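Make up an example, fold above all:
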Amino acid sequence: MIRGLSIILVLLFIESCASQPKSQLLADEEETVVIEKLQYYLYFPPDYETKKEEQFPILLFLHGGGESGDSLGALKSNGPPKLIAEGKQFPFLILAPQNPHPKKWWNTRAVMQLLDTIVQSNRVDKKRIYLTGLSRGGGAAWELAVQYPERFAAMAVVCGMTPVPYASWIDKDMPIWVFHGTEDKSIPFSESQNMVDKLQQMGYDVKFTKYEGVGHNSWVQAYNTEGLYDWFIAQKRKD
């Protein structure tokens, strides 16, 4: 009797399973299109118009979270755009786009599309494309160095955060200069320290400038470092 009951229970279980809807795994595809509107400043050096046969380097500058939004003039509060507004001249073009999203990460793919357009439309030396960013823009600069390892001749990052595993994907032939304040409460100093330590262990050409007692606004001292721009202009990709 027990055996017969067991058989009945098994049959009921099988019937129950057969009556339940089956899961499905479907294969399909969709082509997506993302449109990003980027306002930007583009600076030309004083001799760009007179030296019509010469190709010039270009510096891509990515601002921090505080300058995001739709007011392009906000970019003049920090970094190279601020120095340009104060009258400083640079020996290369400077492209400074604005992240239109106050609380979103940089759309790095859109930034690269803009950079490609500017490079193609002007007399730019493709072996001397430089990259820099501060805070949120510094994090985006690390990301660009990973996603486009063969595009930049040199990179300077100011108080930017980055996952240490990024180190393995960055071009070893690209010189890097990192700046950070030791008392940064927004993006911990350890973000830069850990990344620099890893890069140095792996044999990268990386410089690290530490500002003792300085908080998150280490970009003030970093971008007023005259040697930074001399360092940039000396770099050129070999490939």
The longest helix spans residues 2-19. The two ends are 83 Å apart (CA to CA). The beta strands are 40-43, 56-62, 93-97, 124-134, 154-158, 176-181, 206-211. Confidence is low (pLDDT under 50) at residues 9-13.
